Inverse folding.
């Protein structure tokens, strides 16, 4: 096991820069998730850690060794690919044993390690099958087994669950997390799915167009987003954003989003009249109490909660309530942001004000 | 609905009906000549004379015929050596073309040229290259001081065998290379990435990833290559006509020579028919032995 340290890592393909100076430090045994929309450079970053892409500038350390010019096989890492990259012409057992065979380990050691990994993953009955004869979830497990047998310093996962169906994805998510709790190997996990990131990570790195937007624990990112991007990316359904001007009202601050519509805002030191964006999570709208008027457009009951899509002064807004309401489309309801649960952002820079 | 239209709506009627034209064409243009050839092999037909059934007399004679036996040996030597070289060179060329090289598509097009040029044309070019007096190869070697006389490429038995094999390899390599290149491009890059993380060197990646994953295509391509080489005729006929002293006579050229210029239709047909078992054996070998591996079978892409 080892820590991983990225310092001012940059990557350009030809003259196109795709990663602009990323600093991340990953502690020994930590499970870190790189998350961001597609094309944000998260996979490229992972491939640079693996050694599959060259580093244009900056420094990557695994343990206390700078690995910029170290070949992938000498980095002591294991990677799980999005398409699993299982060798189709080898049986499961040979897929898992391949790296140790190349390293010239003894037959007994190879068998012992493969058996152990197969037991952990429940693959013992499938060792003699070819990858084609396995289901998606089983292939996924073989790909992890291939990583586990090597007992590497760092596990790298490149969107390993995106080829599975929704149910299996949730199941494998738990399995991977459980596996990490058991093996405690430093892991770097790339995904575009913020729910995967929230549920699995010790620490999340949110990336956008080649830059790190914020690093923190899942709940930190949820409670204290640094900017509009992180606020909108983390959480589902996504946070509502309403542009307006700061005013002083009711002895506190408010955001005027329409001539007759003011939402209460968190305390801040900006001057009245400055442009701001107020952000409220759907689950932080109180429905039915006094508040701003909203027209109901669609109501989606999911059983556990009800999602209400409505319109406030021309802006689309989503509210989620645990109670079962009987609104109909066209009704007018009152929405009020829960106290202390709204955020203010600077619309120009995107940075959070309060 | 009338009886006739119901009759034509029946799948069991309509199917064979649609197949009829194709089946008739096949029967007429494929089966008839093949059957006639095999039948001729059992007769003593000569040009201008309808043959009589003589059983396996032609074959009995051929077994004792030293020229026929030499031609069988030549055919095997020619097929074996040429196929091995075609495979090795073709694979090497395919691996080169699979790399990122400048003017990639242009180079790939150029590689195909020997395959596109009509065989007779390239044979004539080689004939000129191998000419006893005007050979450019001899000329270059003499001018460089490597040799002091011109080489009689097509005049000596073993030299002639080597020269015809080289010409055949030159012609056959592009087909093998392009097919293997297509096969190489179906191997996902992540295989090599996974292997390089697993610690495989470039050679080990070739040995454990490229070669096994390419093996189904290799089997198909080499079967075709062996069939083409075994039945080669044009190249030999233009270059040597089977000479010198029958050293380059293949079964195909001998068959033609005995049957058409020699007039012994029955005997020529018997030689041609004698090729069929060998060709069938080659096809069956590749079909059962190589083409479909266990790892390609079973399970859908779930």
């Amino acid at each position: 096991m080892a820590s991983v340290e990225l310092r001012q890592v940059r990557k350009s393909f030809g003259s196109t820069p795709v990663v602009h100076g990323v600093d991340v430090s990953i502690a020994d045994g930590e499970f870190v998730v790189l998350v961001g929309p597609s094309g944000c450079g998260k996979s490229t970053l992972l491939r640079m850690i693996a050694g599959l892409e060259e580093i244009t500038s900056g420094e990557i350390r695994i343990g206390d060794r700078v690995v910029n010019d170290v070949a992938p096989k000498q980095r002591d890492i294991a990677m799980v690919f999005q398409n699993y990259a299982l060798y189709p012409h080898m049986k499961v057992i040979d897929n898992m044993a391949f790296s140790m065979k190349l390293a010239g380990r003894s037959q007994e050691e190879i068998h012992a390690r493969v058996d152990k990994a197969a037991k952990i993953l429940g693959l013992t009955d499938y060792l003699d099958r070819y990858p084609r004869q396995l289901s998606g979830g089983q292939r996924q497990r073989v790909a992890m087994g291939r990583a586990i047998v090597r007992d590497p310093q760092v596990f790298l996962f490149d969107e390993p669950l995106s080829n599975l169906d929704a149910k299996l994805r949730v199941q494998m998510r738990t399995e991977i997390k459980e596996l990490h709790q058991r093996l405690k190997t430093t892991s770097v996990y790339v995904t575009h799915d913020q729910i995967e990131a929230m549920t699995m990570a010790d620490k999340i790195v949110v990336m956008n167009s080649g830059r790190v937007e914020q690093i923190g624990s899942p709940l930190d990112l949820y409670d204290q987003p640094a900017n509009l991007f992180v606020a909108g990316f983390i959480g589902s359904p996504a946070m509502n954003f309403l542009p307006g001007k700061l005013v002083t009202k009711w002895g506190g601050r408010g955001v005027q989003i329409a001539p007759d519509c003011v939402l209460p805002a968190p305390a801040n030191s900006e001057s009245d009249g400055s442009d701001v964006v107020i952000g409220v999570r759907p689950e932080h709208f109180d429905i039915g109490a006094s508040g701003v008027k909203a027209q109901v457009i669609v109501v989606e009951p999911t059983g556990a909660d009800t999602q209400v899509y409505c319109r406030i002064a021309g802006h689309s807004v989503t509210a989620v309530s645990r109670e079962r309401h009987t609104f109909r489309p066209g009704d007018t309801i009152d929405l009020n942001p829960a106290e202390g649960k709204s955020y203010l952002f600077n619309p120009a820079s995107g940075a959070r004000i309060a | 609905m009338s009886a006739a239209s119901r009759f034509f709506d029946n799948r069991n009627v309509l199917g064979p009906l649609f197949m009829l034209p194709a089946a008739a064409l096949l029967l007429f243009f494929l089966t008839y000549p093949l059957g006639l050839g095999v039948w001729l092999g059992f007769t003593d037909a000569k040009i201008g004379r309808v043959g009589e059934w003589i059983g396996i007399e032609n074959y009995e004679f051929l077994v004792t015929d030293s020229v026929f036996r030499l031609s069988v040996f030549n055919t095997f030597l020619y097929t074996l050596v040429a196929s091995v070289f075609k495979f090795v060179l073709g694979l090497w060329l395919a691996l080169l073309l699979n790399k990122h090289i400048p003017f990639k598509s242009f180079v790939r097009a150029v590689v195909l040229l020997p395959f596109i040029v009509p065989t007779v044309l390239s044979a004539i070019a080689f004939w000129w290259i191998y000419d006893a007096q005007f050979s450019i190869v001899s000329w270059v070697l003499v001018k460089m001081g490597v040799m002091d006389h011109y080489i009689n490429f097509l005049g000596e038995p073993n030299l002639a065998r080597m020269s015809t094999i080289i010409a055949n390899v030159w012609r056959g390599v592009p087909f093998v290379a392009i097919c293997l290149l297509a096969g190489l491009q179906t191997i996902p890059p992540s295989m090599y990435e996974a292997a390089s993380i697993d610690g495989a060197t470039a050679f080990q990646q070739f040995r454990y990833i490229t070669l096994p994953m390419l093996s189904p295509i290799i089997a198909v391509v080499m079967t075709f290559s062996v069939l083409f080489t075994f039945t080669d005729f044009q190249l030999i006929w233009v270059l040597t006509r089977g000479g010198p002293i029958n050293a380059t006579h293949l079964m195909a050229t001998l068959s033609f020579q005995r049957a058409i210029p020699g007039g012994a239709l029955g005997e020529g047909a018997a030689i041609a028919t004698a090729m069929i078992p060998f060709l069938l054996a080659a096809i069956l070998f590749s079909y059962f032995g190589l083409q479909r591996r266990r790892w390609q079978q079973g399970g859908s892409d779930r």
About this structure: Chain B has one domain: 59-296. The mean pLDDT of chain B is 86. The first helix of chain B runs from residue 3 to 9.
